[in-house]
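=== Structure Prediction Worksheet ===
Name of assembly: unnamed complex
Input type: mixed (protein and possibly other molecules)
Chain count: two
Listed entries:
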Amino acid sequence: MTGLAFLIPIALGMGLMGLFAFLWSMREGQYDDMDGAASRILIDDEDEPR
Amino acid sequence: MNAPALIPADATLATTRLTVPGMKCAGCIGKIERELARQPGITAARANLSAKRVAIRHDPSLDEGALVAALLALGFEAQPVADNPLGTEAAEQKRLNRALGVAGFGMMNIMLLSVSVWSGADGATRALFHWLSALIALPVIAYAGRPFFDSAWMALSHRRTNMDVPISIGVILATLMSLYETITGGAHAFFDSAVMLLFFLLAGRALDAEMRTRTRAGIGALLGRMGRSASVIAADGSTRRVAAGDLVPGMMVLVAAGEALAADGEVVEGRGALDNAMLTGESAPEPVGPGTVVHAGAINLGAPLRIRLTHVAEDTAIAEIARLMDEAGQSRSHYVRIADRASRLYAPVVHTLALAAFVGWMIAGAGWHASLTIAIAVLIITCPCAMGLAVPAAQVVASGALLKRGLLVKDGSALERLAECDVALLDKTGTLTLGTPRADIGGLDAEARSIALGLAQTSRHPLSRGLAAAAMRDGVVPAAVEDVRETSGMGLIGRWHGLPVALERPADAAEALATTLRIGETCQTIAFSDPLRPDAAQALAALRAEGLAASILSGDRAAPVAAVAQALGLDAQAEASPQAKLAALESLKAAGHRPLMVGDGLNDGPALAAAHASIAPGTASDASQQAADAVFIGEGLMPVALAVRVARRTMRIVRENFGFAIAYNALAIPLALTGQVTPLVAAIAMSASSLVVVANSLRLARSAAQ
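=== Predicted Assembly ===
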């Protein structure tokens, strides 16, 4: 029974962290451009033109 | 709100957002971000591919025009974002996503506690877990349920019902009942069911909204294409710039070469050519002279014109088209989504059943508590979880499959309407044909080709661009032509190794598109054609196989339309004005048909908005793309036929999903009515039914394969 006193707040805290991470990433605009994010991996990093 | 991540905040720099509809792939993003940042005065650029926007941080001394020009130099047309009314939809989608996140959090944590209760927690532990569930569920439901509560309240206050009414009643009753159970230390609480229901429904909503906003982005406003200001000539001969909104009929304006007209008027002085492609879809430039009536939105290709304004602002032809489009679009919004139609039948049945369960058990003497519990169980287990997913899941999968084949569906209900179409009307220029004049340079030798390219690449005239494109496709290197001058209506004159060279209007300016290349004294004629899309015949055959009879409805002149109609074996109506096109569609609808309209020009806009369903090519004017339900890209016409086929298959899957949901309810309702359903059974049954619906919808993924 005492285990629950620790485990439940931990579980809830982790859930809340996940929720805040989601809300934060959304406010930061990380879901604004899903197509762009999918395409950006194809862009080469080098800044020098050929 | 969507602060570009890579761009540092610096108070001395200005940020400008531009819409860049031509942005399509990773290469475009890379090119824009890398090359634009190299321009003097521009610090950084960040592209958003989904919204087709570019945010540019730059020196405040650079104005919008300079940025648009810089993008044009990279090969992208751009427009200021202020013309782009998309803000509210993005906010709506954000709200749904946030609600979905909150509901997901609540669902997982409550479920965690519920599993303990189901697996035998008792007494004080159970009470504690129920209280914790309540603590999580109440704020989560209050927040995540808002989209449903708002919509249900809206419907009820207008004395209608929709799918959200039973959902809201079910969720609220279940929450109140669970709260009561928790306070009195009862055995069952429904918090998990209520929150899970919200989560699944929100997932459906969010998917639906995602698809709807997906391709609506990147659409410049119709009036953005109109000139924003004009040079008004005062009585003393001086000119001043006047904003389009302040123009008054009767004013004399000077339209420079390359300038877009800001209002309708009549040419008083000057001869030249106008590019009316945006208005009529006709790619050949229209010669104008004194007395010609000209329209806002047309671009002056030749010498400066003096124009006396006749219609301004809301009275221009372009504004008239916008109004027609708006009205036509509203008549289509009366279309009832299949899900709403289902809910009209479904909601009363569910309510009656729940009420009957309550009354029945009261009469049977079960007591109000047990009766209400069973009534809520009925409401929850019949809650349209699978129903809520039945439509969006199938539509998202289908539109994803179509997207891979080059067709973007803008709205979920578009697939429903596409599936119902029984007649197809197609525009000619730009729809059946490619819409850009292609030069036939086969008859020219290498020297002539390079001179032609050297001349053509200096001009923005459609024929010059067609010629330049054809030459560049053949790898021609442009000759160094000097002193190139463009004379309105006549052509380009230049000097090559001391020899006068020119691209001129042919002597017999007949119907055929052509230009004469003169090198010294020798003249050669270059013919242009607007070829049919390569698979036009095949696509029409595929449409016919789906039972859609096709015909041509074009605003072009009769002769070219007849030629295309004959080549494809179709009926045709030529020289149709926007109003006539609208009328043709209305009469088809009045006759009980459900027409599919395919067109690209702005003159097709009202027809596209009025048709039962409509498709525009990616080369269409922004306004037409906005009016259409779907946009196809590439040179083929096949996506149009494919869209109809996939839409029909989607509707079959949707019907299966509904069938399944009904079968599930037929099984679940008797159990719930007889009081057999515990929260565990309800939760499992609900998730399972949703999963089956999603799995069934995934079968559509390959539907666009061939």
